[in-house]
Design goal:
Number of helices: 15
Order of helices and strands: HHEEEHHEHEHEHEHEHEEHHHHEHEEEH
CATH architecture of the largest domain: 3-Layer(aba) Sandwich
Radius of gyration: 22 Å
Shape: globular
Structural class: alpha/beta
Helix content: 40-55%
Distance between the termini: 44 Å
Length: 404
């Protein structure tokens, strides 16, 4: 069969809905400045679907600095991969400052987050090693693990007993191969909003020999005393062997970094294929990251604003009877039961009748029969917008009940 004919015949749970969903539920076109109110489908909506946690995406000073850096450097500089011609003093400065901020020996600035995680995992392990990872890990972790040529075992989400069982299996394998064990989890799980049980995981080091890699995309900037992340929030940063965070959330930008020992970072610099064979992060993003890191170090104002909104929104939803699970982060999931069609009707009603924009999460991301309305509070939301949204969810209760 011709490859293109085969593609025409291929279907999937999401692709099957492309004709009826594209442009509205999938690939929606949002217009206007990034913020708590944006334009969608010709009308203003309260926007709860952008990971701009600290509200820096449209901050005037951030935008001014971005503009000045782009005028100064353009988007091309530096040209080439870091190893060949894309390394600058600014890149090195950020690495030094972020390593100090994360209380690690060294750090490495990356061009992208998703590819960074995939490439870090690929660089850390070989076919003799075993990876043990959380069932609800982000797709970048799953893709990184899938490239692993050795054994990989998955443990039930945030289930320490399940993790122990998989570590026992892993130990049996490495006794034969002479390899090592890498445990992978997240600081904050992006769908459910619950933090990884990092304190409990690192406590297992007294019984098992392994290294731990944490992807803290949603924790960096939002958790910890100065926004250092979930590992600081839980007081176990010194027990985390490799720490990763992206700029795509709290820094409202592109890029990422990984922090660890000098030896591990040196190894990654010379083995990460996503960095050796791809362009360095452009200078405006580097200068932007340095400024945003300065903001985190100097003040908790934006983080404090975020958490006032988070607490108000989450408590308000619970008070009117909505189930938000075990979230202990800014990510606010609302759990409902129903089909994909039910989810579409709920989202359409909220957007068109009430002007509230949330994202829906359905199968195959979560099990069939389950719906998550995923809300992302930010530091730029106001208490008025929280109150309006809670009132909308009150009014939506009969509509949702009628679908059951």
């Amino acid at each position: 069969m011709d490859l293109f004919d085969k593609i025409k015949a291929k279907h999937g749970p999401l692709k099957d809905y492309a004709a009826s969903s594209e442009g509205y539920y999938m690939f929606p076109k949002l217009e206007g400045a990034i913020g708590p109110r944006m334009q969608f489908n010709g009308k203003e909506v309260i926007m709860w679907s952008i990971n701009d946690y600290l509200g820096l995406g449209n901050d005037p000073e951030v935008r001014r600095r971005d503009t000045e850096a782009t005028k100064k450097w353009g988007l091309a500089y530096p040209m080439g991969a870091r190893m060949m011609s894309g390394h600058t003093e600014k890149h090195a400065q950020f690495e030094k400052e972020i390593a100090e901020f994360q209380e690690k020996e060294a750090a490495y600035l990356l061009n992208y987050g998703y590819q960074g995680v995939v490439s870090i995992i690929q660089s850390l392990v070989d076919r003799h090693d075993v990876i043990v990872y959380d069932y609800e890990s982000h797709a970048c972790i799953v893709d990184g693990v899938s490239l692993h040529l050795g054994k990989r075992f998955v443990f039930d989400h945030n289930d320490i007993e399940s993790l122990k069982k998989q570590l026992v299996r892993a130990e049996k394998v490495i006794k034969k191969t002479g390899g090592s064990i890498l445990v992978v989890s997240e600081g904050v799980f992006g769908m459910r909003g619950d933090q990884g049980l990092l304190k409990e995981i690192v406590a297992l080091k007294k019984d098992f020999e392994f290294r731990i890699f944490i992807d803290d995309a949603h924790g960096f900037g939002t958790l910890g005393p100065q926004g250092q992340g979930a590992t600081f929030e839980q007081g176990i940063q010194d027990e985390i062997d490799i720490y990763f965070a992206t700029f795509a959330k709290s820094f409202a930008s592109i890029g990422a970094y990984v922090a660890s020992t000098k030896e591990v970072i040196k190894h990654l610099q010379y083995t990460m294929r996503s960095q050796i064979f791809a362009k360095s992060l452009p200078m405006p993003m580097v200068e932007g990251a340095l400024y945003k890191l300065h903001l985190l170090r100097e003040s908790t104002e934006q983080k404090d604003k975020l958490w006032r909104i988070v607490r108000s929104l989450q408590s308000g939803l619970k008070e009117i009877g909505y189930e938000i699970g075990d979230t202990n982060s800014a990510v606010t999931p609302i759990y409902l039961k129903g089909s994909i069609e039910d989810a579409r009707k709920i989202v359409y009603e909220m957007r068109e009748k009430y002007g509230v924009f949330t994202s829906m999460v359905v199968y195959p991301v979560i099990p069939k029969g389950m719906i998550i309305l995923r809300i992302i509070p930010t530091a730029t939301h106001t208490m008025k917008e929280v109150e309006e949204t809670i009132e909308v969810f009150k009014k939506m209760k009969p509509f949702i009940a009628a679908l059951a």
